[in-house]
């Protein structure tokens, strides 16, 4: 640029001597100046090309310049072109800026912003360019230098003022007088103004209006236009109005002619420039539209184009610098346009990246999105987008870390809250009313009902089932692979493993010119951290389950009042086993369960007062979940066989199983005590000689054994092929515990049978059981209540209860208990040799006890009848040849008939000769016959001597009973009968013996006639015909 051009640019404060338009910042001071003439300017069709002249002239008329125009136009002309550094580090500011790569020789406005003497001096701009690399110490030293310079200049100015003070005073007085004279030019003196006011007053009073001002007034008006007043625009009003009017007319006449071609050339040049860089101009708009529509392909395409243009512009600038040549106008324009485009693109891309990072950190599921190329996992799409755009941090690693943190937080919060909710339900059940034995026993009947195992809500009380279901939901949400946390952990490791081995990255982009390829591999330290993280997550799950089964109930439940997290990473409703339906009053918390010595008080997972049926049902499900989950966790890569984590998983299964078996055995024992209440004294539908109690007990025991087998062996927790099974065989200690409890439960149930038979019950109208002590021994037989219908049971009759219990015992001893023992041996692969012998002995003892209890009253009555009859004085016959048996014989036989009737009606005889009913009838009558024989022997022994008639009477009595009851004669009874004849023989003489032999034939005839006459009365004692036909 030539020197003249530089002077022109400096004079008008322009950046170049040939500007295409007047700078906008120089228009600010002129806007208010032309307000009075706004009506004139609105008539112009286009912008005046003399507007610069108007503004400059108007400013001179105004007399004072404000704003940037004044600063740039007036003051900056006085600024030096260079000056020393204000901080004292160099002699030339321009030289310092040139060293920094900033040339300001041809930019006066920019240069003035670096010069301290300029009103536009910018301290921040000056320091950021001239002293960008200065240290703090050098800046402090520069501050001291600047302070000293200011003090020196202030002192010089003070000396100047003091030495020329009188001159300043005179000059000030002269200036003020001249200013006042110019200001008052054209104004009237005070006296003239007063006269004019009075004259105008007279005119108004007379109502006469002056038609025109006087010549003197007109002259004053013209003079006031040039007075230095604000109303006269400080003497410029007249000239400015003329110039504005002339400018408007010139613009109307010559503006179109002079500016049309220039405008055309300018628009043509702009159009060519826009056309050449159309692609650059369109990138920002296309990118904005693509981001709004989330069209990733278009975003990547536009970003690559923008980067390509930016790189080309950089290469152009680098070539110019390396070639030490100035840029052409076209190159400069292209670089400027590309720079503005790149700034816009970079701003949009950074905002888009922040959105991608935010979405990636919140993607915690492997959900798939449907794209044009097929289904794509959402996190993979976001990672690919970030890699395509280029990022410093590895999005794969960031997502894996966020996923790990999410799972860790989820496990901790879910498990802590679940434990509290389980404890609240447990406490509510513990402090509630204890269920009565009748209620508990009612659930032991349910396994016989159809579909009981498919309806677990029928196995226990509603509160107990609610707690069982809560624990089951908790373990399901924690340990299942389909919908549980463990499934998410395993899915996370599989995803991490695919990133570790690099298979997942094959589908990821490498970015612009491969800049994101470095993020396709995880570091060794990162892999190690992922492996440790998986082990930590597994340990958290394991410890949560172990705490539930091994630890006592928790004390602190205040966590329930903490608000659920509401962050997107931790949903509220998904992870509470009760779905957050607890509404507790903090001032009325359920207290800890009282200590009553119950077995379940030390088990956090066992509902108080729950029975063994619900226990084996749910705990078998729990252990299947735990065993399956433990097996699945051992398949994870970081958990190797023999590692501490593997051993802890095996220990988890073992501890949960042992604790479950212990508490079930305690509940099993309690239920076995209540099994006596299963007896409702109704006949079994299939075996009419039994009540329902044996079948109910059999079903109950079988259900418990089946559930216990699942708990001990966890056979359904089968791991998939290729995995290591952490479920070990049950230890011998647990098997022995179950064996002992099995035998104990059978013994308690059998004891309950005896108690039911020997203790009275309330009448039918009352519900429940009463224990009134052992029944009083009866002196005789309750004949009226013994003869009942075959299908009816009079449970108030002790003999009937005894008979049904004896029949039940026979069935248990012969069929049901051996079947249970076999079932146990098959289920647990053990032999119950000793236990089976113990159970048989117990059954035999109980059977013998009940048998004696039933027959003793009858035997006592029979013995009394026999003893009284034989010892009576009239027993000895009055005739020499007796032909009748004594009445006590008929009374004895009638008693035996009633016993036979009671047994046969209470226990219906089945067609099978070896049935329990037939066996019991035969055993009872055989035993009573033996006792009758013993009573006869004892009674006959009470007499010291027998005559021939007495001997014949004793023989008739004994033989009549023996022959009538012949099918019930046992070896012992035969032996006793032989002893009777020996005793009779000892108590007679030889003559009577010889005569007795002569009378035997006649006696046989008498016995035959007696039996014929009593055939109907004693027909019940006849032998049952066999298939062949005749009697035996």
TrEMBL record:
Top-rank taxon: Eukaryota
GO BP: exocytosis; Golgi to plasma membrane transport; protein transport
Q: Where is the Exocyst complex component EXOC2/Sec5 N-terminal domain?
A: 84-1021
**Protein transport: is it a keyword of this entry?**
yes
The UniProt annotation puts the region (Disordered) at 185-222
Question: Cellular component per GO?
Answer: exocyst
Which InterPro entries is this protein grouped with?
EXOC2/Sec5, EXOC2/Sec5_N_dom
| UniProt KW keywords | Exocytosis, Protein transport, Transport
Keyword NAD recorded: no
State what this protein does: Component of the exocyst complex involved in the docking of exocytic vesicles with fusion sites on the plasma membrane.
What assembly does the database describe for this protein? Component of the exocyst complex.
Family the entry assigns:
Belongs to the SEC5 family.
Q: What is this protein called?
A: Exocyst complex component SEC5
Organism (species): Elaphomyces granulatus
Q: What is the lineage of its organism?
A: Eukaryota, Fungi, Dikarya, Ascomycota, Pezizomycotina
């Amino acid at each position: 640029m030539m020197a003249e051009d530089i002077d022109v640019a400096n004079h008008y404060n322009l950046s170049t001597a040939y500007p295409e338009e007047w700078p906008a910042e120089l228009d600010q001071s002129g806007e208010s100046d032309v307000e009075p003439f706004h009506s004139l300017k609105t008539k112009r069709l286009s912008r005046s090309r003399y507007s610069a002249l108007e503004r400059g002239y108007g400013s001179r008329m105004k007399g004072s310049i404000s704003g940037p125009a004044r600063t740039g136009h007036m003051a900056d002309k006085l600024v030096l072109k260079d000056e020393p550094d204000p901080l004292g580090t160099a002699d030339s500011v321009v030289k310092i800026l040139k060293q920094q790569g900033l040339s300001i020789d041809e930019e006066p406005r920019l240069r003035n912003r670096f010069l301290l003497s300029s009103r536009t001096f910018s301290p921040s701009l000056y320091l950021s360019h001239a002293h960008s690399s200065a240290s703090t110490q050098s800046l402090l030293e520069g501050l001291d230098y600047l302070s000293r310079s200011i003090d020196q200049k202030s002192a010089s100015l003070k000396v100047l003022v003091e030495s020329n003070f009188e001159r300043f005073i005179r000059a000030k007085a002269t200036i003020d007088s001249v200013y006042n004279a110019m200001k008052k030019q054209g104004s009237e003196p005070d006296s003239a103004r007063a006269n004019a006011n009075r004259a105008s007053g007279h005119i108004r009073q007379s109502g006469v209006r002056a038609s025109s001002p006087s010549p003197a007034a007109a002259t004053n008006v013209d003079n006031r236009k040039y007075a230095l007043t604000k109303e006269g625009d400080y003497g410029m009003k007249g000239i400015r109005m003329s110039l504005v009017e002339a400018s408007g007319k010139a613009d109307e006449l010559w503006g179109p002619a002079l500016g049309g071609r220039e405008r055309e050339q300018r628009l043509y040049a702009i159009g060519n420039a826009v056309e050449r860089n159309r692609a650059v101009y369109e990138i920002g708009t296309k990118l904005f539209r693509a981001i709004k529509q989330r069209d990733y392909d278009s975003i990547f395409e536009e970003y690559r184009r923008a980067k390509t243009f930016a790189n080309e512009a950089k290469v152009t600038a680098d070539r110019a610098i390396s070639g030490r040549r100035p840029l052409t106008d076209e190159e400069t324009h292209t670089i400027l346009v590309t720079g503005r485009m790149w700034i816009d693109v970079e701003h949009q891309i950074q905002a888009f990246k922040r959105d991608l990072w935010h979405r990636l950190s919140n993607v915690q599921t492997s959900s798939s999105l449907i794209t044009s190329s097929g289904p794509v996992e959402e996190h993979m799409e976001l990672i690919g987008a970030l890699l395509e755009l280029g990022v410093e941090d590895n999005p794969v690693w960031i997502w894996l870390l966020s996923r790990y943190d999410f799972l860790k937080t989820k496990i901790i919060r879910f498990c802590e809250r679940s434990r509290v909710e389980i404890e609240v339900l447990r406490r509510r059940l513990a402090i509630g009313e204890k269920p009565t034995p009748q209620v508990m026993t009612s659930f032991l009947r349910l396994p016989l009902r159809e579909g009981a195992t498919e309806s677990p809500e029928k196995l226990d009380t509603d509160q107990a089932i609610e707690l069982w279901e809560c624990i089951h939901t908790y373990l399901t949400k924690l340990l299942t692979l389909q919908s549980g946390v463990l499934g998410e952990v395993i899915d996370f490791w599989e995803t991490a493993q695919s990133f570790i081995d690099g298979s997942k990255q094959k589908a990821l982009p490498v970015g612009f010119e491969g800049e994101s390829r470095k993020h396709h591999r995880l570091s060794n330290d990162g892999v190690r951290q992922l492996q440790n993280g998986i082990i930590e997550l597994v340990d958290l799950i394991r410890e949560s389950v172990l705490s539930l089964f091994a630890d006592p109930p928790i004390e602190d439940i205040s966590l329930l009042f903490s608000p659920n997290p509401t962050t997107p990473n931790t949903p509220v409703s998904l992870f509470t086993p009760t779905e957050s339906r607890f509404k507790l009053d903090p001032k009325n918390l359920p207290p800890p369960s009282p200590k009553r010595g119950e077995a379940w008080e030390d088990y956090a997972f066992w509902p108080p007062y729950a029975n063994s049926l619900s226990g084996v049902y749910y705990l078998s499900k729990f252990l299947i979940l735990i065993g399956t989950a433990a097996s699945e966790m051992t398949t994870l890569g970081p958990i190797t066989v023999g590692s501490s984590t593997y051993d802890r998983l095996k220990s988890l299964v073992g501890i949960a199983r042992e604790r479950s078996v212990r508490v079930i055995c305690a509940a099993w024992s309690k239920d076995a005590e209540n099994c006596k209440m299963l007896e409702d004294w109704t006949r079994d539908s299939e075996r009419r000689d039994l009540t329902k109690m044996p079948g109910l007990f059999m079903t109950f025991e079988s259900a418990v054994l089946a559930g216990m087998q699942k708990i001990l062996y966890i056979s359904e927790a089968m791991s998939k092929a290729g995995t290591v099974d952490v479920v070990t065989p049950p230890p011998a200690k647990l098997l022995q515990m179950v064996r002992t409890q099995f035998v104990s439960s059978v013994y308690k149930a059998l004891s309950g049978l005896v108690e039911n038979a020997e203790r009275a019950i309330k009448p039918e109208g009352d519900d429940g059981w009463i224990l009134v002590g052992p029944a009083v021994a009866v002196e005789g037989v309750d004949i009226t209540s013994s003869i009942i219908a075959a299908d009816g049971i009079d449970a108030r009759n002790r003999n009937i209860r005894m008979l049904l219990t004896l029949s039940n015992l026979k069935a248990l001893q012969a069929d049901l208990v051996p079947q249970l023992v076999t079932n146990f041996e098959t289920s647990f692969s053990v032999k119950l040799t000793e236990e089976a012998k113990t159970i048989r002995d117990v059954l035999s003892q109980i059977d013998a006890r009940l048998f004696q209890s039933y027959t003793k009253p009858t035997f006592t009555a029979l013995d009394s009848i026999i003893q009284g009859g034989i010892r009576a004085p009239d027993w000895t016959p009055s005739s020499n040849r007796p032909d009748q048996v004594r009445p006590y014989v008929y009374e004895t036989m009638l008693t035996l008939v009633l016993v036979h009737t009671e047994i046969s009606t209470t226990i219906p005889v089945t067609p099978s000769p070896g049935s329990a009913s037939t066996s019991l009838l035969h055993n009872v009558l055989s035993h009573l016959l033996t006792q009758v024989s013993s009573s006869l022997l004892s009674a006959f022994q009470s007499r010291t001597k027998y005559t021939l008639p007495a001997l014949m009477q004793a023989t008739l009595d004994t033989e009549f009973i023996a022959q009538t009851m012949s099918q019930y004669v046992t070896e012992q009874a035969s032996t006793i009968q032989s002893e009777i004849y020996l005793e009779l023989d000892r108590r007679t003489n030889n003559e009577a013996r010889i005569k007795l032999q002569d009378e035997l034939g006649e006696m046989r005839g008498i016995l035959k006639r007696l039996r014929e006459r009593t055939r109907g009365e004693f027909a019940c004692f006849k032998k049952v015909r066999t298939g062949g036909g005749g009697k035996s």
